Amino acid sequence: MVVPRLVVAAPASGSGKTTVATGLMAALRARGLRVSPHKVGPDYIDPGYHALAAGRPGRNLDPWLTGEELVAPLFLHGAAGCDVAVVEGVMGMFDGKGDTDFASTAHVARLLDAPVVLVVDAARQSRSVAAVAHGFATFDPRVRVGGVVLNRVGSDRHEQLCRAALAEAGMPVLGAIRRDDAVSAPSRHLGLVPAAEREPEAVAAVDRLAALVARSCDLEALVRLARSAPPLPAVPWDPARALGGQGKAGPVVAVAGGAAFTFGYAEHAELLRAAGAQVAVFDPLRDERLPEGTAALVVGGGFPEVYAAELAANEPLRAQVAAFRGPIAAECAGLLYLCAELDGRRMCGRVPGVARMTDRLTLGYREAVALRDSPLTRAGERYRGHEFHRTAVAYEGAPLFRWDGGADGYGDAQVTASYLHLHWAGRPELAQRLVSSSRSPSVLR
């Protein structure tokens, strides 16, 4: 399939990838193009801004969580009907899992056969930007760097020096962005504040990014570069096909949303629907009851620690979740919400454990083994997940998962809860298991 596409990469985190990628998505959309937004890796926050910019769900591409073979199919699924796709990278372009480039921006660019736009922070350097760009362009000949966007340029003279050096190195300059503190987004302990928590401020921020990129970058040249990508020999991912056919219409699966629970992959809801579920979103901050007919719960990631007082104050919903006896799948924030307490505030009490904020960031990919059956897991199965949190849970009893150097989680006949974020596209049977057990909650299938 032919999908015009490009990957926005950088030498290091903090270079301006999100500024360029999000602004480019919004600027191209403003010009009438249908834009497909994507993000390399397990990040949940950037895709929220991408969704605002493009008007479509932001989707993640992660070879570690889903397998290399699904990256192109998932990309094509998300890009269906679009004129151009923009993929924001992660960290430095060649930074992958451990001491490899597996699951790096470069890895995904290779899997998509997509040209790369390198965003270089030009602050405190001039001619050296050409050495940086040349090094990244030649480090791996399998990755095609199609041009450079200079970020944080200080003056006309600074821009001229950088452009001249890049011309000597044979590197096209596709944009030069001046320093502009007005376009920065607020951050806190795990990165940017999610877009869902700060509307309409987030909408205004995206509009500023669009204007900045439109006046600073050569949009026509960027689109030409995207259109230089060759056909992608893959079949688009399809949730029904992933499950072996369409499930029978039936149970309501309630999915937590709102400002406290903003993390989730778009493919999860698509798989649940393909398995026959009716997906209903509820907000634990505002809704005092679960959606009518709820047969299963999904409580994903987010920032419940920021909203602990409000979650605790919603006693009617906490009581209903505590009494709910259908299957529950909870990740990270959902785990905290199910605990007995979070930072001294009463939560739902479905997980026998107490959660609290810490000063330690826990971050990284995990290859875990399930130690027992639960709605999602089967004892002995291996799962690939990702941890990203500054909280800790003191559990009662044995963990649900174990991996080299660690263990975590709680599981019983009704509950699967842990810090591990899983991407169900790589394990579509998880959606099927949840829906099947919701039809007969007392039987694990």
From TrEMBL:
The active site is at 332 (nucleophile). Its EC number is 6.3.5.9. It is an enzyme of class 6 (ligase). Residues 6-190 form the CobQ/CobB/MinD/ParA nucleotide binding domain. InterPro entries: CbiA/CobB_synth, Class_I_gatase-like, CobQ/CobB/MinD/ParA_Nub-bd_dom, GATase_3, P-loop_NTPase. Pathway: Cofactor biosynthesis; adenosylcobalamin biosynthesis; cob(II)yrinate a,c-diamide from precorrin-2 (aerobic route): step 9/10. The record marks 421 as: Increases nucleophilicity of active site Cys. GO terms for biological process: cobalamin biosynthetic process. The keyword Magnesium applies. The keyword Zinc-finger does not apply. One of its GO terms (molecular function) is cobyrinic acid a,c-diamide synthase activity. Residues 253-427 form the CobB/CobQ-like glutamine amidotransferase domain. Catalyzes the ATP-dependent amidation of the two carboxylate groups at positions a and c of hydrogenobyrinate, using either L-glutamine or ammonia as the nitrogen source. Comprises of two domains. The C-terminal domain contains the binding site for glutamine and catalyzes the hydrolysis of this substrate to glutamate and ammonia. The N-terminal domain is anticipated to bind ATP and hydrogenobyrinate and catalyzes the ultimate synthesis of the diamide product. The ammonia produced via the glutaminase domain is probably translocated to the adjacent domain via a molecular tunnel, where it reacts with an activated intermediate. PANTHER family: COBYRINATE A,C-DIAMIDE SYNTHASE (PTHR43873:SF1). Belongs to the CobB/CbiA family. This is Hydrogenobyrinate a,c-diamide synthase.
